[in-house]
Amino acid sequence: MRKISKAEINDIALGASLLGAGGGGDPYIGRLIALDAIEECGPVTLLSPDEVPDDAFIVPIAMMGTPTVLCEKAINGGEYKALAEMVESYFKKKIFAFMPIEAGGVNSMLPFAAAARLGLPLVDCDGMGRAFPELQMVTFTIGGMSATPMALTDEKGNSCIFNTITNKWTEELARAVTMACGGSVSVSLYTMTGAQMKKYAVRDIVTRSERLGKALRLIKEAGQEDTEAKFLEITEGFKLFKGKIVDVKREVRGAFNFGTVVLEGIAECKGRSAYVEFQNENLSAVVDGKIVATVPDLICLVDSGTYTPVPTDALKYGKRVLVVGLKCFERWRTDEGLKLVGPRYFGIETDYIPIEERCKA
Amino acid sequence: MRKISKAEINDIALGASLLGAGGGGDPYIGRLIALDAIEECGPVTLLSPDEVPDDAFIVPIAMMGTPTVLCEKAINGGEYKALAEMVESYFKKKIFAFMPIEAGGVNSMLPFAAAARLGLPLVDCDGMGRAFPELQMVTFTIGGMSATPMALTDEKGNSCIFNTITNKWTEELARAVTMACGGSVSVSLYTMTGAQMKKYAVRDIVTRSERLGKALRLIKEAGQEDTEAKFLEITEGFKLFKGKIVDVKREVRGAFNFGTVVLEGIAECKGRSAYVEFQNENLSAVVDGKIVATVPDLICLVDSGTYTPVPTDALKYGKRVLVVGLKCFERWRTDEGLKLVGPRYFGIETDYIPIEERCKA
């Protein structure tokens, strides 16, 4: 158990946006929402999973929709209280703690705002260890858990409770309501017991985000030479490419941002080319016509000078980036995991090969 | 209090489909669902509104979506039990009786199926006295009542409970889920007390449907001459036009069937022309360039030989029809009523003039 105050929030947001793998939203807006809530209501108690009783009622909190919409259609701050009341009244149980459902700039932060405002602790875990575009893509689905009953509320005060036959149906119905509400809503889903959380969640993700964020900040602050090796060391990342963005193709389809970013090699990659395909998050990286990484491993683009993560909605012509691959949570590499989030689910015609093997070859 | 068995159902379905004013679905499928439930579970007790205690919990039942979809994507019959359980558990109250929300071939019938299957009575009233395309278009909205908490379930077992800030928002969110579920779902909304029902509902609509249906059947069975005068007498209808359908323009937009049916005069209307615009239901009738009827009055097209109502989704080139106007429920003619369902709401640039005045001129 430890207290998270404003100083830690900055590092957590930065590290979480790297783990967002191109998605999960810009940390700027997410951080502001968390900082504002902590400023007003005080620090948040972060519990390690093992500090949670097995029968505790644990409630994940997230934003659903397009993070870019959140910049213009803000939350009103009352959503978390509304969600908590809906969930407690529906389940007739008191919430013991909140938890995040995914990493990324926005969804790592909103649970802090909820915890601060409701005076509840937050558990140091999530359901992805990264960000993914669809809500059934969590380790809890592998554990046979249901996303529903799921609570949804918008900033105007409209709300729903869903009960669905599969987590894919939850995605369909909740996505439809999210769009009808203007593209961004607050949700609570995969409510669970402490025992389920301990068995299936990705542990210590907040602490990992903070450690990564702090290291990124220190590299940037130190401004030394040869920082790339340092960056790869602290992220345990595989360097996939270094290049300049020469084209970004985007298409909005079914409330997702699909697209491809095309890179022209710079420095030691000069004369070579690469592209990265994305659906909110980066899905695959191809260098000189050869696949070098795919989901569920994390493909992250960072500014080649500052190592600041570049989310897919901030990709711009001329930006110089380092493409780095990180190993995903081990459970994603099982058959059940790959069925949910493997390359073929996203229409990429290749088997999954772990990034460390692809990079060895 | 009286019992409704299979014989009455046929007449009620026929009469209700006339009151559907072109919408509310084909009575064929609605009737089959009701007949099947009564065959299996026995007759339904129909209560007159005054037989309901003021504090009784009254639950409307309806289908939401496109009635044409219902022909291919059938109900499974378990929807009513699911809805009843959701509503009773959410409100922590026992349902006293069901009621229909609108007339029309389908939504007049499904509440009978629900009542038969759950062994509950049905109240002889609804919220429109006709059919309308959007769910906020009920007399209960005039009474300041909320459509929510609203329960929705599909035939697969997915379900939602909505709570919204306005009845227009209920329409937006529930419509989005309806589309995501495949275009047709079962719903329960505007749950109310007996006192509210008695104050705002359109009374005796089932009995009126039955009387109309029986009269239509007798006209058809008798096969006499000069039945048109008889038809107009029993429906208290205003004859607007008699013609052959020469064109049907259709457009599906936002889960509604929009369109125009163009008529060329026959018999005493020979040499004249007319058209009727619709959004699921018929909205306005124009004869020789002059508006002769608009919502909220009922504009009904019936087969000119058999007086069988022709819903908008059954309009076909060459069909000979009589266009008849019926007075709407008086509360629709108030300022509040016209704001909800008057011609301008539907984009028709005219003030509402009651049909009896338009036809006098």
How would you characterize this protein structure?
The structure is a homodimer of 361-residue chains. The first copy, chain A, has 361 residues and is α+β, with helices and mostly antiparallel strands. Helix content of chain A is 34%, strand content 28%. Chain A contains twelve helices and 18 strands. The relative contact order of chain A is 0.15. The interface between A and B is medium-sized, with 19 and 19 residues.
Main sheet: strands, sense, barrel of chain A: 7 strands, antiparallel
Spatial order of strands in the largest sheet of chain A: 16-15-14-13-12-18-17
How many DSSP-defined strands of chain A?
18
What is the H/E string of chain A? EHHEEHHEHEEHEEHEEHEHHEEEEEEEHH
Radius of gyration of chain A: 19 Å
Instruction: Tell me the β content of chain A.
Output: 25-35%
C-alpha end-to-end distance of chain A: 43 Å
Helix share of residues of chain A? 25-40%
Number of helices of chain A: 12
Largest interface (CB < 8 Å): A-B, 19 and 19 residues
Low-confidence stretches of chain A: none
Silhouette of chain A: globular
Oligomer: homodimer
| Overall average pLDDT of chain A | 93
Please state the structural category of chain A. alpha+beta
